[in-house]
Amino acid sequence: MNTLYFDCFSGAAGDMLIASVLDAGASVDVVRDTVARLHLEAVSVEASKEWRGGLAGTRFQVRTNPQAPRRHLPEIRQLLDRSSLPDSVKSSARLVFDNLGHAEAKVHGCALDDVHFHEVGAEDSLVDIVGFCALWHHLGTPSILVSPLAVGKGFVDTEHGKIPVPAMATLELLKGMPLETTSIPGELVTPTGAALLSTLGQEYGRGFSFVPCSIGYGLGTRDRSDPPNAVRAVFADREPFDQDRVVLLESNLDDATGEEVGRVLNLCLDAGALDALVVPAQMKKGRPGHLVQVQARQKDVDELQRLLLEETSTLGVRRRGVDRAVLRRRVERRETSFGPIRVKVAERPSGREELSLEFEDLDRLSRNIPMPLPELRRRLLQELRDDDATATQG
């Protein structure tokens, strides 16, 4: 089982995500061991079978001391560093908390280290985040796919007063992820759930193709029946590449300058093209020219065709459907000794993963490091591979 799909038809919270994985067959002992390794006093966890609106599933609960203090981000980092957790789990949990911290800092207008995790700094949320990361690594870090997240309406009470849902930091974390509005009042997606799915999730949306192997339902605290207050987890096998059909648009240009052609390519990419390229060509009467090719999703074809007809001198656009096989890939934000950088990870059919660096981030780092860019790329890739090898051994 190389894939874990979360169907968030009723929102998502940290305890619901853990419960759904447990209901699908994972052991709660992994989370108990995590609590022990964190050295949290008077904290225990339990998983029980319950019903929500006619749906049977698992409820996950963390028993804590209600007087335990809330923590700032530096305190949480120190807690993780002092723990006896595997380095791979520490790294994932640290990244989730860092992303949550950046979101909180932005919406509250404060420095990252000054962020005070109110609800999320409590021990139950701490266990939810670190426990989920431990389960994920225990299962072999399957690729995480996430459906559009259902979000509620109205307001929620916080230590800052009433705020609209999704809460400000939650919505900040969900940027770039598909959401579905519902008529259900209240907070359906919590900051903990948003932080886990936005950090560890690799693909979002619908239309995934996979073979289900094991299914679980994680129940929330509210007893709601329409829809049931639950998250569905599906462990599945998935081919290492996707197949789909796209539209290829082509135009011949025999009187455009290089600058004009480059501008058109950028306009196409900004308008949603999957890819855009130009091929040198020899046109009729021996004139030098360009063949412009644009790959498009069906929904973007009309706009991209209009753009080619409007922004170039072409008199026509050819279009045809083409099938393609696409390797699965994801983008991760990784910490390195040179600074943070986004890394594109592609999975070959053999299961081997290849890393490539986002050039914009590489260029940004190179401006502050007295080292040729090719050498910086080589060192970064080597450090990332060494980190992955260490995490696998751990």
In short:
By secondary structure, the chain is of the alpha+beta class. Helix content is 35%, strand content 31%.
Description:
- About 35% of the residues lie in helices and about 30% in strands.
- Helix 4 (about 85-110) crosses helix 5 (about 125-140).
- The strands form six sheets. It has a five-stranded mixed β-sheet.
- The protein has helices at about 15-25, 30-40, 75-80, 85-110, 125-140, 170-175, 190-200, 260-270, 300-310, 360-365, 375-394, and strands at about 5, 45-50, 55-65, 145, 150-155, 155-160, 160-165, 180-185, 205, 210-220, 230-235, 240-255, 275-280, 290-295, 320-325, 330-335, 340-345, 355.
- It starts with a strand and ends with a helix.
- The radius of gyration is 24 Å and the shape is globular.
- The protein is an alpha+beta fold and about 400 residues long.
Supply the number of structural domains: 3
Could you give the order of the helices and strands? EHHEEHHHEEEEHEHEEEEHEEHEEEEHH
Strand order of the largest sheet: 9-4-1-11-10
Query: What's the N-to-C terminus distance?
Result: 21 Å
Task: Please state the oligomeric state of the protein chains shown.
Answer: single chain
**Annotation field: number of helices:** 11
Low-confidence stretches: none
Largest sheet report: 5 strands, mixed
State the helicity in percent bands.
25-40%
What's the gyration radius in Å? 24 Å
| Percentage of residues in DSSP E strands | 25-35%
Overall mean pLDDT stands at 90
Q: Which outline best applies?
A: globular
Number of strands: 18
Q: What structural class do you assign from the helix and strand content?
A: alpha+beta
